[in-house]
Design brief:
The chain is mostly helical. The chain is 74% helix and 4% strand. Strands 1-2 form a two-stranded antiparallel sheet. Strands 3-4 form a two-stranded antiparallel sheet.
Length: 441
């Protein structure tokens, strides 16, 4: 069929081509206008090619543009990095999360992940169930960072003052190996055990601390308030005072008139001690000799052994390498002597030595049973099981020692309290008795 000089099909084809050309020119004009006002990272030029839209980069000024709040992983990495740097959460220096809240957080998160709840939804649920405002802020921050594409372990690193290296690494291993639920359960059990150990030690030390404070309080009351009221009676009779009373008079005068110097002296000693503990070899020397104390040293040694054996056993059970596991275990130790020892053990393992071989060299930190069980675990290939058995054994020993601590320390405290209060009482009563004898004669 012909219309005029050309067939209808050719005229339609020519009209379509002209329409495409006009659309392309208009899109290029729009792209040039947008290019003058928008950054290079976001803009794309649009051209029409055989009826399909084709995206090509458009040159323009490299000015960062804030992306929408619902940014997803499909955005350009450079643009999202600029936005994330602005939205990066605070380090949480003033936020706190108690051990009990951490136990509940890891336990509930493990249950939710095991039930198939997505991690973002699980964190949002835990945020709504948080018992404190600080915990809710931390969980919301973790949720935002995971939503932006970070792993849970990387998000937890922003709060290293709350989550330990052990917690961060065991979560990291769980995310990599696909055993996050199991590792979170391990972490919850570990935090619960640490909480129980600390609670046992604190409860065992409450009674001795109360006795010490009461003794110092009674002695200060007698010296500062009671004795000065009796002193004028002694001076009025001009009697010969015993040496204990003279010593108490000097102490009372000093505490009444020169207490400021005493306070400054206590502060100076405390600051000097704190600064000295910042020196590496001094801190190691103090920590090692603290373990040699008769009663408290043995109790804290069981506490440290139970902690490092459980931590190292759980890390190895999570398929973490022995060298990295030793480094993490050393970083979690509050005793610097143990931390230095684990550094040496890690260096020995790098050289091909067994962990138990370096433990044998330090019998103060590692008793014979620890070294032998570690050697058996290395020999049989069940090192994690051996370490966890050691942890349970030393936890039981620590529990028994904390129960008997009050019974062991009570006689010593009573003797000290009796001597101190008795000295003050004799210093007051002896002159009174001498004065009454002189009056009768």
């Amino acid at each position: 069929m012909y219309i005029g000089k050309k067939p209808l099909s050719k005229r339609v084809s020519l009209a379509i081509k002209n329409a495409k050309r006009r659309i392309a020119l208009r899109m290029k004009a729009v792209s040039r206008r947008l290019n003058a006002a928008m950054p290079q990272q976001v803009l794309v030029g649009v051209t029409v090619f055989w009826g399909r839209i084709k995206s090509t980069p458009v040159a323009g000024p490299s000015v960062p543009l804030p992306l929408p709040s619902k940014t997803r992983r499909s955005y350009d990495p450079d643009a999202t990095a600029a936005v994330n740097s602005k939205k990066r959460p605070s380090r949480g220096l003033f936020l706190r999360m108690s051990t009990q809240e951490q136990v509940l957080f890891t336990k509930r998160l493990s249950i939710l992940v095991k039930a198939g709840v997505p991690i973002l939804q699980a964190l949002a649920m835990l945020r709504d169930q948080a018992s404190s405002k600080g915990a809710a802020q931390i969980m919301e921050s973790l949720r935002r960072q995971v939503e932006q594409g970070q792993s849970l372990a990387e998000a937890m690193k922003q709060y290293k003052n709350i989550f330990s290296d052990f917690a961060i690494n065991i979560v990291r291993v769980g995310e990599i190996s696909g055993t996050l639920t199991q590792n979170l359960q391990y972490l919850a059990d570990e935090l619960k055990k640490n909480q129980e150990l600390k609670r046992n030690i604190v409860s065992a030390l409450i009674y001795p601390a109360f006795i010490v404070v009461a003794t110092i309080g009674i002695a200060s009351l007698l010296t500062i308030y009671v004795f000065p009221k009796i002193l004028p009676v002694f001076q009025s009779f001009k009697a010969q005072l015993p040496w204990s009373t003279l010593v108490l008079i000097n102490i009372s005068n000093y505490m009444q008139h020169d207490w400021g110097y005493l306070l400054l002296g206590i502060i100076a000693v405390a600051v000097t001690w704190w600064l000295a503990l910042k020196i590496g070899f001094v801190r190691i020397f103090v920590d090692r000799n603290f373990l040699r104390l008769p009663i408290l040293g043995s109790m804290f040694k069981d506490y440290y052994i139970a902690n490092f054996t459980r931590t190292l056993g759980l890390l190895l059970k999570s398929d973490l390498g022995i060298i990295e596991a030793l480094q993490i275990t050393g970083s979690t130790m509050g005793n610097k002597a143990y931390k230095k020892s684990f550094d040496k053990i890690g260096q020995g393992v790098v050289r091909g030595l067994g962990m138990s071989e370096d433990m044998k060299k330090d019998k103060l930190l590692f008793p014979a049973v620890v070294t032998q069980m570690a050697a058996i675990g290395e020999m049989t290939g069940h090192l994690s099981s051996s370490l966890l058995y050691l942890a349970e054994m030393h936890e039981e020993e620590l529990t028994n020692k904390t129960k008997n601590l009050s019974t062991s320390i009570e006689p010593v405290l009573m003797i000290v309290m009796g001597v101190l209060v008795g000295f003050i009482a004799i210093s007051i009563i002896t002159p009174i008795y001498g004065i009454t004898q002189n009056l009768h004669t």
